[in-house]
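lol so apparently i was supposed to do this last week
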Amino acid sequence: MLSNKNILLCVTGGIAVYKAVALVSKLTQAGAHVKVIMSESAMEFVQPLSFQVMSKNDVYFDTFDEKDSSVIAHIDLSDWADLIIVAPATANSIGKLANGIADNMITTTLLATTAPVWIAPAMNVHMYDHPAVIRNINRLSQDGYEFIEPSEGYLACGYVGKGRLEEPEKITALAAKFFQPKEQPLKGKKVIVSAGPTRERIDPVRYLTNFSSGKMGYAMAKAARDLGANVTLVSGPVDLPKPQGIHIVNVESAQEMLEAVLAEYETTDIAIKTAAVADYRPKNQQQQKMKKQAGDSVIELERTTDILKTLGEQKTHQLLIGFAAETNDVLHYAQGKLAKKNADYIVANDVSKTDRGFGADENTVTLVGHGDYVESFPSLNKDVLAKKLLEHILKREGLMK
Ligand code: PMT
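anyway here it is w/ PMT bound
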């Protein structure tokens, strides 16, 4: 499965370095070309020769030891790689990368690459639970790095807990899955997805919003990307990692979301409106912080533009998919929105239960289309659901087998 794939393995210093030798062996047996960079500490545990023998390639460890004068090694390696795996990744290297420090061959190469980077931490269980390490991992996740979580078990330091480098067989299987040729029915198509809530400012320190986390919209964007689409994600303010391979436009208010979506609409093939857009905004946004007054206060609200409806009105060739969050008569309201907003599909979202819908990891939806098309889905994880929704729609549209 890894035939002719270029995998760069960055080995940092921990006792799990010996497992990285086995990882090179598994990756090369699966057909990958593997090159290895070692940190100085990694070389305290295992000699570079072991990696050289397993990879049949030179091992790199010194940024200034240029083996080939026609290239700059760390740039050449970062361009060569189809995938970079940091295994084992120490707390120290994770911390450096999270802070943009480039003080050795590994960190310099990682900053220079545009290839996907997977980080497989291995360390003492208390180190892994340390707030600084958690903070650095979260920051890197938000920057788009993927993590291969350590497994639980007996650790070299004597503790039993989470911190063991994931097994080489498992990492190799993940890499094989990553490179598996996927059906790409959306190749060459442009998809725009809106996600998350909007914020409608009352004054410089207060705003109106809702509980949308952006999870469903981000899942739709990733599912479209995985089907080969060129995806633009217009995102309200959310706290989610930036997905790789997706163009993100950050917006705050309904008006900004409208402008961002319209700017791309003409060249869009599929528009998916998952965002929970505010229906109202304060009529007068105060420039100064509002002062407390005696008695009650009233904020006058005005309607925002209905983005989905606007897209429905301006539709030429686009496939338009809306969402509808309802607490009752879900199907009835969704069918009404399908007609009123000139959408092709509405994903009717039952948000009557608190463990689903807004903010939750799961959603319960019914897909509604023209010609009395109704397809109900069980309660599903949003990533799984997003794939299923797109597959159903694309099959119905004759875009997928
Ligand atoms: O973000 P999560 O926490 O993962 O939660 C996901 C979700 C519950 C937000 C999502 O699944 C969902 O149901 N999104 C639509 C929520 C909603 O606001 O529905 P609505 O009935 O108010 O709007 C119907 C459709 O019109 C939506 O496609 C909405 O994007 C669109 N709309 C609404 C108002 C407006 N001013 N402009 C719009 O385009």
